[in-house]
From TrEMBL:
Homology family: Belongs to the yippee family.
Listed name of the protein: Protein yippee-like
Alphabetical list of Pfam families matching this protein: Yippee-Mis18 (PF03226)
Any one GO MF annotation of this record: metal ion binding
Keywords, comma-separated and alphabetical: Metal-binding, Zinc
Lipoprotein is among the record's keywords: no
Span of domain Yippee: 21-118
Domain of life: Eukaryota
Coiled coil ranges: none
Organism expressing this protein natively: Phanerochaete carnosa (strain HHB-10118-sp) (White-rot fungus)
Length: 124
């Protein structure tokens, strides 16, 4: 589902993955992805290191565009946090060649825009 990037969608943020390690938006703490969905930490985003993820939630998509990346021109759509509209990375829509097809349908999330929540329980 594509949302208007500037639309107020804070009320649509869903709480999910209770008691599981997750990545959260560093600005508003909305849950973005399960840590188990991490494919690779060896990617580069616009603002530094990035994580390639199988899936993500509480995101809205920007418009698709052709973007020159380190591995060629890909069709991508920027993704924004549903809670605060912060740009968190992009979604790979189409890859340029067979060696890059594994990225299609995956998310590149900027490491600096995420917080790890390990859902640790402390004994009281």
């Amino acid at each position: 589902m594509t949302q208007t990037v500037n639309a107020d969608t804070k009320a649509q943020v869903i709480a999910a993955y209770h008691d599981h390690p997750v990545f959260q938006c560093s600005t508003c703490s909305a849950t973005i992805a399960l840590q188990d969905e991490l494919i690779s930490k060896s990617f580069s985003g616009r603002d530094g290191r990035g994580y390639l993820m199988h899936s993500a939630i509480n995101l809205k998509m920007g418009k698709r565009e052709e973007r020159g990346l380190l591995t060629g021109v890909h069709t991508v759509a920027d993704v924004y946090c549903m809670g605060c509209n912060e740009r968190l990375g992009w979604h790979y829509v189409k890859a340029p060649d067979n060696a890059q097809k594994y990225k299609e349908g995956k998310y590149l999330l900027e490491r600096e825009k995420l917080v790890k929540d390990n859902a640790w329980k402390l004994d009281e």
